[in-house]
Amino acid sequence: MLDIARNGIDGPLTTAEIALRQNISRAYFEEILRPLQHNNFVKSYRGMKGGHQLAQKPDQVTVGEVIALYEGPTLMPCVTSCKSCKQLAQCPIRPVWRTASTVLFDHLYKITFADLLLGEQPLFDDRTKERKRT
After folding, report:
1. Are residues 68 and 131 in the same domain?
2. What residues have CB less than 8 Å from 95, skipping those under 6 apart?
3. DSSP, res 40
């Protein structure tokens, strides 16, 4: 996404040029691209002037949206539910993972691809700074 946002200003970019810049195979890039196409983050065109470009402006897409697309909306599956875990109801670490997921994704949803292009990212507020240990 960032490569397309950075380099696709003048029109669609080919699979070959993106894969070459990212030092990955074309086949792997196409695997990565599929979910982005199906979720309207990237448009793809066929033909001589074909290629890939963002479906939305960089300031309309967040890092959180793209990460959640590939990884899911939490850090650990048990944060939302885990039917196979017998310790779920009394798990002492589950609330920690839930809080960590919330803090992380709240932050990632504030960062747009335009922010990345500009080299700017919102900072965590004071509540998320490390506490002093006693």
Report:
1. yes
2. none
3. T
Confidence (pLDDT) at 130: 46
Tally of domains in the chain: 2
pLDDT value of residue 21: 96
Q: Which domain holds residue 21?
A: 1-56
The pLDDT of residue 79: 72
Q: Is 0.85 surpassed by the pTM of this model?
A: no
For the chain, the first-to-last Cα distance in angstroms comes to 43
Look up residue 6 and give its amino acid: R
- Given a cut of 50, the residues of the chain with pLDDT beneath it are 126-134
CA atoms within 13 A on the CB side of 14: 6
Which has the closest alpha carbon to 98: 83, 82, 76? 76
Q: Which helix (H) or strand (E) holds 35?
A: helix 26-38
In sequence order, which residues have a C-beta less than 8 Å from that of residue 35 and are 6 or more positions away? 69, 70
